[in-house]
Amino acid sequence: MKNFRAVITKIVLPAVLLSTAVACGSRDDEFSNEQYVGTWDWVATMGPNVNETPVSTGKTAKLTFTPEGTYKVEENSTVLSEGSYTLYKGITSTDHVEKMYIDFSNYPDKMVNSVSATDLSLGDDSVNGLTYHYKK
User: Which residue from 2, 44, 69, 116 lies 20 to 30 Å from 30 (Cα-Cα)?
Assistant: First the structure.
């Protein structure tokens, strides 16, 4: 019985405490805007019966995020929208999975399909929604 208590005291109890501390840790890094900061050039918009590019439309577009939480949407060097943005996690209405979203103050929210150092894919959260591709 003493050996059992020793095992509990020396191994199991610290393991439980450590896992609890890790599980309750901050998720701030999940909501870091660091990956998004910069100017993104529009590459394509795709969806049902839609396949638009700068070449096919004659339009150029940019999406700019700042570290301070502001954004700007430009089309052919004209500002279409600007304001603040925040990141949040939500459940998609289409496939019911958790994804990151961008909440724009003066522009429709977009679902983040993927983001890397050079590629950004945003989407509308609807069955017939469009997907917007950007590159840095």
Answer: 44
